[in-house]
Amino acid sequence: MTGLLIGLIVVLAVAVGGLIARQRSDARRRPEAAPAAGARRILFPFVASALSGRALDAALRLARAEEATLMPVFLARVPMHLPIDAPLPRQAGIAIPLQEAIEQRANAFGIPVDSRIERGRTYRHALRRMIADEHFERIVVAAATREHPGLHADDVAWLLDNAPGEIVVLRPSAQDPIVPSAPRAARRLAGPPAASPREHAALTL
């Protein structure tokens, strides 16, 4: 009886060992899961007064090709005499319609958008905070020209030296900017209808 029990235990042990070995072999042969769609992120920093349509279209094409999320980041400059988190209603009135314009164009191509507002004493300071806080694989940015606002050459050079990932720099033309709609911005700042949580945060920059 004892010999039969020992034999049964040995058989069970061999069977379990074989099952574990087969599972390990299958796991080694199984391909790794593909990353979820939209896991990649493309930062698109922009500044007040106007938005480069050419740079935005380039960012949208890359996001569509890579199945990435577009992250538009409005760079808000906070004067030195104000606290870094002080309300900035004038810049909020610019940021909101520009972010809406980006989201409308992105929605037309089925590209997810995750908008941000980054504060700084200068654009470079805001850029430094942006790259420290966000995870991304690529940055698309418009450089400043005589006709169009954007990041100046020194800030672009700093970004190239300090930001991780790939960086695409475009020079916009005079016919390029998307200008915010003043009446719509005024309605947003006036009060009702109630703003969404994201817009409320922007209004209290």
Structural commentary:
With 205 residues, the chain is an alpha/beta fold. The chain has one domain (41-203): 3-Layer(aba) Sandwich (Rossmann fold). It has helices at residues 2-29, 53-66, 89-108, 123-133, 153-162, 182-190, 197-203; strands at residues 41-46, 51-52, 69-77, 116-120, 138-142, 166-170, 177-178. The strands form 2 sheets. A 5-stranded parallel sheet has the order 4-3-1-5-6, with helices on both faces. Strands 2-7 form a two-stranded antiparallel ribbon. Helix 3 (89-108) crosses helix 6 (182-190) and helix 4 (123-133) packs parallel to helix 5. The protein is globular, with a radius of gyration of 26 Å. Mean pLDDT is 75; it is low at 4-16, 18-38 and 182-200.
What is the overall number of helices? 7
Write down how many β-strands occur, each being a DSSP E stretch of 2 or more residues.
7
Please tell me the total number of domains: 1
CATH architecture: 3-Layer(aba) Sandwich
What would a concise description of this structure say?
This protein is an alpha/beta fold and 205 residues long. Helix content is 48%, strand content 17%.
Q: How is the secondary structure organized here?
A:
Layout: H1 2-29, E1 41-46, E2 51-52, H2 53-66, E3 69-77, H3 89-108, E4 116-120, H4 123-133, E5 138-142, H5 153-162, E6 166-170, E7 177-178, H6 182-190, H7 197-203
